Amino acid sequence: MSGKGKTASVRLDRLLANLGYGSRREIQMLARAGAVVLDGTPLRDADQRIALDPGLPARLTVSGKPLDPPPGLALMLHKPLGVTCSHKEAGPLVYGLLPPRWRRREPPLSTVGRLDKETSGLLLLTDDGALLHRIISPKASVSKRYQVTLDRPLRGDEGAVFASGTLMLEGEEKPLLPVTLEVHGPTSAAVTLTEGRYHQVRRMFAAVGNHVTALHRDRVGALELPADLEPGQYRVMGEGDVARVFGVE
């Protein structure tokens, strides 16, 4: 195959503009001022091409700081309560938890699925459209685990109802795929599902006569929310993290 094994390259001004550092003209001014440095040497020609190798962020600095991760970025974020997974809705947005420059990236970062405003926990974001669609594709059957707090005690048959594959949600014509319920206490449990229907967990418990008072997602595939990742914090995902999303331990 043509080009196999070769490292892609890109013009410096295009790379930095797509990462949100400014317009092409502003990047040219940064370069001429000696603010863009590769391996200790200022790059004063913004038109030159540089290789997009994995080690580039460790070798290139802009205004004295390491280069932001190039396209192909995937993040895990601990979504706090009260923020919305949207670019446009009113109120605090998950994108406001990221560096301002990252909101100008091209291709843009998008959430992999959504958590509603009153749900906390593990949220993935990426600028890699192919990866996003691999994760959300029904064929991948990527599981999601939620920790649930309920208004009323469980009645005892919820596990069998959820696992049956016959539960119908109000207003829908297709039953849910089987869902696993793990009971922790009278009003606390974990559910693991592979679909992502609108407000699915809340509607499931409403269908069996209960009400969810708190909802927290702590796992996607085999990737668990790190215990040291505080609400509002994010972390760049490595290849191993991405593999765990697809169930590879």
From TrEMBL:
Residues 10-50 form the RNA-binding S4 domain. Pfam families: PseudoU_synth_2, S4. Residues 75-207 form the Pseudouridine synthase RsuA/RluA-like domain. GO terms for molecular function: 16S rRNA pseudouridine(516) synthase activity; RNA binding. GO terms for biological process: enzyme-directed rRNA pseudouridine synthesis. It catalyses: uridine(516) in 16S rRNA = pseudouridine(516) in 16S rRNA; a uridine in RNA = a pseudouridine in RNA. InterPro entries: PsdUridine_s_RsuA/RluB/E/F_cat, PsdUridine_synth_cat_dom_sf, PsdUridine_synth_RsuA/RluA, PsdUridine_synth_RsuA/RluB/E/F, PsdUridine_synth_RsuA/RluB_CS, RsuA_PseudoU_synthase, S4_RNA-bd, S4_RNA-bd_sf. Its EC number is 5.4.99.-. It is an enzyme of class 5 (isomerase). Keywords: Isomerase, RNA-binding. Belongs to the pseudouridine synthase RsuA family. Responsible for synthesis of pseudouridine from uracil-516 in 16S ribosomal RNA. This is Pseudouridine synthase. It comes from Methylobacterium variabile.
